[in-house]
Amino acid sequence: MRAAGKILQNYRLLNTVLYVTLEPCIMCAGAMIHARISRLVYGASDQKTGAAGSVIDVFNHPNMNHRVLVSRGILADECSAMLSVFFQKLRIKNQLRKCRFDKLNMH
Hints:
This protein is an alpha/beta fold and about 110 residues long.
């Protein structure tokens, strides 16, 4: 969103669509509302922190001054698989880094 704002030279991202793999959290949902994003399209739901309907629906709260149209579950299986692979690789990378660090400290 920050990069889009720089390109548009405006923090308001009017008439834009944001595509993401994972349902946004409350903080990200709030940023989208403040940026005036028109539509959100996401794949995988987040049952722990999802703020677009899974845990809470920030976008349809009656006191919000802007509405974001939400499309849920688009390519959900593919998005879930992508996220699983990403975090699996990240865990392996962190384990390797820790192993190298431990070896350095042993000498």
